Amino acid sequence: MRTILRQIILGIFLSVAVSSVVSAQQLNMGDILPQDTNVRVGKLDNGMGYYLRHNAKSTGLADFYIVYDVGSVQEEDSQNGLAHFLEHMMFNGTKHFPDDSMILWLESIGMQFGTNLNAATGMEMTYYQLTQVPLKRESIVDSMLLILHDWSGYLALEDKKIDKERGVIIEELRQRNNAQFRVGNKAAIPVFGDTRYAHRNMLGTEEFLRTFDSQMLRDFYKCWYRPDLQAVVIVGDFDVNEMEAKLKKVMADIPVAQNPKAKEVIRIPDNVAPVVTVITDPEQQTCNANFYIRRAAVPKELNNRVGATYMNMMINIAAAMMNTRFGELAQQEGCPFASAHLQNVPLTNTCDALELQVVARGDAIAEAFTSAYGELERVRRFGFTEEELEQVRTGILRGGKYAYETAGDRENGMLVWECINHYVKNTPLMSPQHKWAVTQLMLMKQVTLQEVNELVRQLISLANNVLVISAPEKAKRVLPETEILENFFSWVRTVEMEPYQTEKIDRPLLSEEIISGRIIKTKKGKYGSTVWMLENGIRVVVLPTTDSPYQIVMNGQASGGLSMIPTEDYYSVSMLAQVVSASGVGDFTAEQLRKVLGSKVVNIQPTINRFSTDINGSAAKGDVETMLQLTYLYFTRPNFDRGRLDMIIEANRINLENSVNSPDFVMTQMVNKITYGDQQRTRIPDEQILAGIDCGKISSWYRNLFTDAAGNYTFYFVGDIDMETFKPLVEKYIGGLPAGKQQLGWKDDGVRVLPGVKEERQEIRMETARSMVSIGYSGGMDYTQQNMMTMGMLSACLQSRYNQIIREEKGGSYGVSVNGTLSRQPIGTYDLKVTFQTNPDMVEELVRVVKDELFQIADKGPDPEDLNKHLEYWRKMETQNARNVQTRLILLQTYYTWGEDWDVDYNKLLNSITVEKVQELARKIMADGNLKEVVVNPTTMVTR
């Protein structure tokens, strides 16, 4: 792979100097790109790195991370699973936070375990995070730094805590041991060679997790989790100088590692002949091909150079052009692949790859891969065209400009990851100004079609090829022999083929003349909005806000939706949004439309919901007219391609066929059946329903709900809106819509949850012995803001209790999900659902826990401390949500649809959610007595 590295990269790094708008000096390919001066980057005396950045976007909040340049690959063969196990132990006692005191204290200040307090372990990198930390007082900052200090090298790692956590991680392994996990493990040796990477599954084995000696974990922690392999990243609303001083003081007592063990550099071995592996699994649902062309990665020390960025840009441009071709081909009748996608991936620190992902239509994976790979060969021979390059170049420039314009609107998390990637991979850490300048320079002055095509010819090599075919076990009989596939790659180079024919589109999106409508009435609206009534009957509510600069969101909504559709047409019309999106609009197919919109930051999607039809959109400020033009076309000139509908139906049919025996599908089917019985509108589509889908019905009902009913709609626009320039655009494109004669309004569709108590148990064949449990409560309830919040608090309190008892005390499940919701239509109802997976031997015990904890809250009320910590979290989040354009949009919709003002004193509303209120709700749920309990258990377990 080093030969390929020299061929592809060294020429780029040694190329002649290019002019730069970044500075007045010449910028060579070997130059280091300028670093963002808004990020304070440093290293402590003990070797620990740090990145500090002020960001005022999230007022009063900050994110605290500690990143380790180590992961599962540091494990010896006898230690598989230790790095991930350590991740769990970070929350089980440290020097200054014994036992569970860390979690309890963090929750008391409004942080949520799993949301704000979490971690992740990878093959080569690990991180632990404290996000959305409320900086209400200085002592909180001190405590956060002390937590990072303890994570750095002062975990308690007590035997009793280790033993207690074993069960939780075993349940995590049980939950994650699905078809994708098993296929990935089997594919590891072909992809990574017989190296450590191929023998690390992150989680380990159940036997190892039950039996490893605790001292092994402590030794692993001491060896690898040390300051010279760590960096602290803190981004948020704070003074950088003050934070740096505090960080240096808190971390000063962490000693320099003595005789540190060096990280082994592991290189993936080359292979001259293609490596082909065919893997089947009974629970796999699609036939897939993952094809890799591996190459040596750019050395870490060069990743922040101009040359590395330039090469990555050219590869990404080539992948984007290739994926446009794949998208066009996938929509053609007879194409054997449902999707094909090319991407540049970092397999390891030392190995990158071009990865071609192919999903077949049905089980024709040989034909699907042959077709997709053939397109790679076509590109290798003939290259791309100037039209293709220009389309991608224009799109990247538009996206880059938008990213530059909205750089001040970035959340802490996005900025954190720029720092993490710089620490772990040495990728550029540029300011938005420099990033935009470099993008323009490279795309406008440097990247040429000849260079891209030459790079592609070198990358699409016959060396270091790996092909992994994965499929359902029942498709095994039709899968190609590996020997045939091994010879395929050299054979395809002898096949005659013609250059790809691209279509140049130079016609405007909307060419027809539109007669503008008039605004007949203007009035001051709610929350600072303006309301325009158009002469065609459409109401437009506009709310300018600086919350998200250069961004505008749109929603057009009318009452009715699927509730208006006769049952015999229900399933046809429910596919309306899919068909319209796949068919394009106006004079353009979907593929042509993507090309036309390639230079725009805009998105439009008509949808049909149970009680409404909507058209949702978003756009950069400079592309708002395009968004309105698309809206006009979707109302007046939608396309309905019967061929696209047939492909959608066939994809659904194949998915149904491959999913029907999967545990998740069986669970969904059982829950649906026990909840709704045989009500026609709640059936999961089967072969009979799919065969009855009628394109004519879809087209006819679309006209009724959109084209001939525009006058029923209210449009909402929220964002960075200049009213003076926006008003004539609304008059033209929204005011120019024909009012239509259809009257829309929602109807009671008669769908109800079945009353009473119903229990269902079913056994099915599974590859992993796991039981899936769903417990649902339902009943009538008024849809009010306070009721919604009370239900949210009950759900949160139950979640805490289940995590404490089922996960922590009993080690019975990796996690329990609690979801409480309210519905307004057709009648006010609530739904409280608890789901989890567990060891089959523990099902009945844990089901009792679920029911008992709800009974305890109904009997005695929730734990006041539990309730208070969740209220504190909601108070913290409200300060951010209030400034969100989506929140403002929802407030407007609620007011103008239902006449309800939900912009109330939030603290006052939260203070009304008392122990007694939550207890009252729990009592109501118990008294209603509508319980649906479903358990799917394994029968025969097969070891593979």
From TrEMBL:
Query: Which SUPFAM superfamilies does the UniProt entry name for this protein?
Result: LuxS/MPP-like metallohydrolase
What are the residue boundaries of the Peptidase M16 N-terminal domain, all occurrences included? 64-179
**GO biological process, any:** proteolysis
Signal peptide per UniProt: 1-24
Q: Which InterPro entries match?
A: Metalloenz_LuxS/M16, MPP/UQCRC_Complex, Pept_M16_N, Pept_M16_Zn_BS, Peptidase_M16_C
Q: Which cofactor does it need?
A: Zn(2+)
The keyword Translocase appears for this protein? no
Kindly state which keywords UniProt assigns to this record, in alphabetical order.
Answer: Hydrolase, Protease, Signal
Is the keyword Iron in the record? no
- Any Pfam family matching the protein: Peptidase_M16
Q: Which EC number(s) are documented for this chain? A: 3.4.24.-
Organism's domain of life?
A: Bacteria
Residue ranges constituting the Peptidase M16 C-terminal domain according to the UniProt record: 212-394, 699-871
From the Swiss-Prot or TrEMBL record, what is one GO molecular function term? Answer: metalloendopeptidase activity
Family, per the entry? Belongs to the peptidase M16 family.
What is the name of this protein?
Answer: Zinc protease
